[in-house]
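Support case: S-adenosyl-L-homocysteine complex. Customer-provided input:
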Amino acid sequence: MATPATSGKTFFIETFGCQMNVHDSERVSGVLHARGYAQVERMEDAGLILFNTCSIRDKAAQKVFSRLSQFKALRKQGKQFAVLGCVAQQAGEAIFAKAPHVSLVAGSASYPRLGELLDRLEAGENRVTGLAAAETSAFETEFTRRDHPWRAYITIIEGCDKHCAYCIVPYTRGFERSRDSQAILREAAQLAAAGYTEVQLLGQNVNSWRDAGPARLSFAQLLTAVAGIPGLRRVRYTTSHPRDFTSDIVTAMAGHPGLCDHVHLPVQSGSNQVLARMRRGYTREQYLEKIALIQASPRPLAITTDLIVGFPGETDADFEATVELLEQVHYSGAFIFKYSPRPHTEAGAWPDDIPDSVKTERLMILQRRQQEIQARDNQDWVGRRLEVMVESYLEKLNQWQGRASSHRIVNFTGDLRLDSSGALPVFSRPLRPGQYAWVEIERAGANSLVGRLCAAPDAAALPSIPPGTAAALPMAASSR
Ligand code: SAH
Ligand code: SF4
Ligand code: F3S
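Agent response - structure generated as follows:
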């Protein structure tokens, strides 16, 4: 959480990109806090301004440069700027030439020695770099500050060795390094003891994790062990790589309700020709075998994916194969991206031969098809009860918003009344983000389910709830 500006050292951090970056920012914040810095919410109030950047597509990478030029005037007030993360690793010292007001450029492999880099920065050096590639398997920082109030991230594997032809991640994040299962379990137990009920295990390819410690747990065993920690109600993990997705993971998920019923399994393309050129390491048929494993689970599991349109050489027939795959799998969600050539990648050297107008058209076709599929499939939830973790209150809609275990967004109302000032509708039993509530689904759209607060389905002894008595609802209080 941000703390008010003090007269001492202050920092502001802005994060772009994936959850691993979000968690890296927590680690960087942890180191800064331990050195006596206070975190502020406005860039203008900070002495040190850090951008933790993403380089996955060109647009993402450009964002940081527009932020840097937007705020360069602040340098005159003595503020220092730092560029961290994937753009730092990718562009390196070239950042100083493009944005001379930057004093520190460091990639994620250098965070374990961030203290030393900050010593130099504080001593007045204005060209400090931490750009060495990962040399050791250690990627832990000494301190981590948890910014998210109810979900805690745990990185279990860093880097990537897969070298898909389009992807910059192996370059920006380095080779694959896994943590010891016992260190992971210790961290998860500490988080549970601190009151977190949801943890998310992270890795660029989280299921490529191999136990670096003597216990030699499989990834499926690790999932079960984390889910068994008292106090943890929801365990998520992302992102899974299809090549390393094995049936024991499904067995673990089927057997443990604490493991959320959601698998994110990016396919990228439905065409074997494109998959081969992308160097994904599986065919459409092999991918569909993994989907069949997941869909055969006795406990229904939601599946989401990532797709790239307009990869070099993607023909109409290749694209059609991707559309057909969507129809076949029935994903509950899909992130669809236009191919963007990246430096240091194999495909980055190939002609980017699909015109942007065609990429846009393909993107829109896929998005439309996926929305239709979701709108139809989500109807199955109407009339059913789901446990939702409350995330926020949407004032405009007079609704609470949360997520089901399957990661579906659920908006809901309950027994509303005005608060004492007569201004804000509140539930007669106040909800707080991080709590769990049961919701009966009444309507479904493509992107969310909508319902009403209700009793838990196993609360059979409870009488049906007459209007105005929602305070009687069983509500698991979050321990934080
Ligand atoms: N490790 C994960 C993905 C991590 S990157 C996996 O292999 O599935 C997140 C997503 O960004 C990818 O799934 C891909 O869909 C997208 N992506 C990566 N490089 C891209 C590029 N050059 N252009 C467009 N999208 C890209
Ligand atoms: Fe990138 Fe491929 Fe590694 Fe995923 S598996 S991070 S897409 S190189
Ligand atoms: Fe972006 Fe780096 Fe994550 S490129 S998606 S921040 S690993």
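The chain is about 30% helix and 20% strand.

Case will auto-close in a few days if no follow-up is received.
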